[in-house]
Structures are given as structure tokens and as C-alpha cells.
Amino acid sequence: MTLAKEHIFEFLKKHKLMQVATVGDFPWIATVYYVFDDEMNLYFLSGEKTLHCQQIKQNEKVAVAIVDSHQGLNDKQIGLQMYGVAKQVSDMQKINFVLKMWKQVLDVKDDQLSYENMIKNVIKNRVYKISPKRIKIFSKELFNVPTGEEPVLEL
């Protein structure tokens, strides 16, 4: 069986948190909420002064892991791993699109969260986009293969 985009979308819909690994002078990992678009790009909001965002400025290559932390050791484990390129989003239309998704998907009720307030620096967070280059889902339910032999989607 091959890994299809539908598998990835179904997985992404079920979760809200991801771990983003970055590297500058040393590796770092941050847990952030995310939303995604039809091209499997992941978006998160974070402050420019956070270590992971500072490192993204230095090195745009990132790794991502998304798992259900409620899985038991004996459960059929499922998770997603990817690597890609992260960049701060500056386009007004794209930021508004992401903020609208952010509010709908994550049920955010913050009226202050807007492009205008980001420009005025009322909101310190900025929008970041991760464009995936390689995605792997490990799932014994979907793919009954030995660990390490799971199908991969190259983009």
C-alpha cells in the first residue's frame, strides 16, 4: 500500500499540536498548535523572539512530529513525521487566510488576533509556514510493514 495525500489529511484533521525541531548553534524542539491547507502546508503562530523562530531565520530546514500522546505502549501506534522548509509569512492575504483558519479550526475567540494588530505589534506572534518535502505516517493499521519500512510521500 502506498501513502496517499488522503491518509495525511485524515491524520492532520485529528490533531492540533505538533513538535517542530529546528537547529541553529544547537538543536531545539518546540510544541505548537497548527492548521494546514490543501497543499499540506502547516501553519503555526509564534513569537519572533522564541528560540525556534530565531533558528528558523538562521536555517529554514525543520522536522515535524505529530502524535497522539494518549496512545498506550501496547496500542497500534500512529504518528506523522516530516521534514520541510519553514518561513515567516509576510503576505497580507495569506496571513488573513491562516488567521481565519486558526480561529475556525482551533476555536480561537480572540478578537485582537488580526493582521492589523500584528502590524501594529499589538499581537507579538507571527505566522509561520512549513512546506513539507517528505512525509511519513507510521501506522500498523494502515501499513502492516516492519518499523522503518513505512511508505513515504516525497514532495
From TrEMBL:
Q: Which Gene3D superfamilies match?
A: Electron Transport, Fmn-binding Protein, Chain A (2.30.110.10)
Domain named Pyridoxamine 5'-phosphate oxidase N-terminal is located at 5-96
The identity of this protein, by name, is Pyridoxamine 5'-phosphate oxidase N-terminal domain-containing protein
